[in-house]
Amino acid sequence: MNQNCNIPDHETDVEFLCTNEYCKDFRIFCFKCLQNEKHNTHIKDVQKIKDYGREQINRSDEDLVQDLEKMIDQIFHLFFTFKEELKFGYQISEEELNGLNLIQLNDLLCSKIKFRKEKQSLIQAIQKNAENMIETMYTGLNEFTQQQYDRPGKKVKQEIKTLKFDLIDQIQDQQINSFIFNQDGSLMVGGYESSKIQVFNFKKGQLKMIQQLNFHKKSIYCQYFMKKTNEFLSGSCDKSISISYLNNDQKWDLKQRLEGHQGGINCLVMNKNEDLLISSSDDMLIKFWTKENELWECSQTIGGHSSFVSCISLNESGNSLISCSKDSQILIHQYDQVQKMWILGQTIRIKQWGRRLCFINDIIFAFQPEKKEQMHIYHLDNVEQLFVKTQEVLVGVGSERKKNRSCFWFFPQQYVQSKQIILNKNGCCVNLIKKDSNNDFVTIQSIDFQTKAIFGRMTDDGEYLITWDDRSGSIQIRQFIE
């Protein structure tokens, strides 16, 4: 290594390094440092730099991997043995059972009851230890990932490293399942678990409630604020969609109620012209609504999913619709210009179902599998004209005491074009993921709310992030900071 020692009067190239973990001296040094008794208390940990190459590092890593593989093999062996004992322990044939007297039958029954109690206790202990091990591995993975981004020589753009949302205000409120903003971000509408809707003025991160609406009988699940008119839509557990408008008295009023779904409304999207409304529901159906004489009517209904439709998303051109469900399928429907209807174009079968997906543009969409620490990116293949998975992005899952509770609904993925950021709720975390010019994605911030019951949205310009969670019981307002 042709670099001088950092001690000025030595004026010679460094030759040695020290690997002792407790060493407090500078680890890269020259022969004169050795002569001055540097590192002499742990000389066995001193090596020549030229001997400390990639092979030694790899051998050390390989040893760790081999140790890990041995532990995994041992765990699998013990698991299999334990499972067989649980399945066949205390089993007795009918012939043996008939040969027992009453005292022996009583003893057998007592043993079985004791065995069942001990089995339950042991399984709970194993489950607790397994959860601790999984949490330790998640923590380690996150630390390794952070070290990858922080290590010298890693080319991470400075603007990506400094992007984040900072908490600026917190307001106690009842549970809000859905947030929407008008186009300029001056109005926010909250859809509540209690079925009410509240309209707020929103200015410089400050909220002021101006009107309460009661157009639904049950919880609000989703909303959509139109960009071309002063109207917004709300979908409810009561199976209806309400369209609200700003009347001549500058009050929000009910314009039309859409009915037709046989289950709660989970998602609402519109095309850019806002002449097509698409809704998905617990009834496993997707409905397309078009305007006739200023009133919305259902023009087509499609199935395909065998469970509730958790999320839908429309591409930029408005001719491709993706949907996901608990049936472990992503369906992609295309609009047929000749037949003037939506037709299934592709079915993607996935190992783990998810609640959230969204188009980034016409050829890319993101999908979040349930309880996974990776978000999947799909690209449209130019040759086959089919979407294929091309990337897995590491995202935060977060931590919660109620570890077995499933993820919550009503927080759709959102892509903000101006910031090129995906908002992705996953488990207890809200993740902000940046897309670069090469269509690569990296998580720039993970906010751990320590609860899965989180609901929220960004303003359309990406300047503010609004959430409600059941741990704080409050609306939290975060501002984009560069």
TrEMBL record:
Entry's Gene Ontology cellular component terms: cytosolic [4Fe-4S] assembly targeting complex
Keyword set, alphabetical order: WD repeat
WD repeats: 258-289
Species per Swiss-Prot/TrEMBL record: Paramecium sonneborni
InterPro entries to which the protein is assigned, alphabetical: WD40_rpt (IPR001680)
Transmembrane feature ranges: none
Family matches, as Pfam families: WD40
Name under which the protein is recorded: WD40-repeat-containing domain
Top-level taxon of the source organism: Eukaryota
GO biological process: iron-sulfur cluster assembly
